[in-house]
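hey m, so remember when u said the tokens were messed up on ur end? i reran from scratch. heres the input so u can diff it against urs
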Amino acid sequence: MAANARSGPRIWVTGLGAVTPFGWGMEAFARGLYEGRTAIRPLSLFSTDGHRTRIAGEVPAGLEDALAHLPPKQRARLSRTDGFALAAAREAAASAELELSEHGRPSVGLFVGSSTGGMLEGERFFGDLRTAGNRRLAASRIASQQHSGPADAIARALGIGGPVVTFSSACSAAGMAIEAALRSLRSGETEVALAGGADSLCELTYAGFNSLRAVDEQPCRPFQTGRKGLSLGEGSGVLVLETETHARGRGARALAELAGAGSSCDAHHMTAPDPLGEGLVLAIEKALTDAGVDLEDIDVINAHGTATPLNDVAEWKALERVFGARLARIAIQPTKSNVGHLLGACGAVEAVAALLALTQGSLPPTPTVDAVDPECPANLVIGAARALSYPATVLSVNLAFGGANVALVFRSDKPESS
């Protein structure tokens, strides 16, 4: 596959923020990844009675502390998802040393993916409503139930005056938000963009995936023989993206480059992926062409890796169609084995994991309990971190209900420490 020249200005990643089941902030996320741990454990956020599973990737306590700087009335209107998004966005902006105007800068955009938004708060409100009798309930409790809540919360708190867009394409939502930010920056619509995703656990999704029997009673094991399904999770990931000219102009450092992106739709089935991976193949090919890289340039793939028996095989077939025999030599990073499936946020948190590998100069080990499945023989990093050679290029892919696919290409010439 011959690469084409990249179009438009180079886009730098200058800041990162994360809230994950490992804890609040990038330090907790990086520590959990590089220690090869899983944060999937017994769920305490709501009752799991009646379900076949009892576990999830739940963000630990800390939400109140993360929002303590806000006035009480404003805090009361934020959902759990909003809180995750706002904490990750503030960390990303701080790490990029990005000062945003109190009244908003029209050249700064915000692109956020979310699948359920404030659904948890809606469920709790409805539960109270059923037993309230004549007692009145404050409607402000569901002010942020809508999917646009996380983006709205960030925009208000950080004073973002450019385009603010929410994506809700299920598990590809955050990846598509990052792709949209890339297009906005290249077109000149914005000079800086915050892009990512956020979702919290809620009873609807937990019960839904249990009803589909798509979940595992143990922490999920992507591409491994004993896998029985996914593990749900929650959290947020946010990237600060800038044109190279703008970043250089303010003296910002580049963590890596967002070199290209591509998206597609299977147009096949509401929940099942195309068995041959036609849509994912197209998204990857678009991303590689957009980035101006060849197949031989890809060193790592942060795979979608849900750990469901059929989806892992379908994803693997798509990757084989693109990379052929070379796929056996490409390292596979399945972040869902660490933190679970974060639904609308997974593409952002997995992009952050990919960028951590580029900045640290090594790939974190994968939590593993079983042998690799011969039907999808992923080159997993097992036991200890694996060093990267530079320049290094990572492909991050996500597949979603409805057949929505997205692929992102990140590149770096050297680790951050060098």
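this time it looks ok to me. The first strand starts at residue 11 and ends at 20. if urs says something different then somethings off w ur setup not the seq
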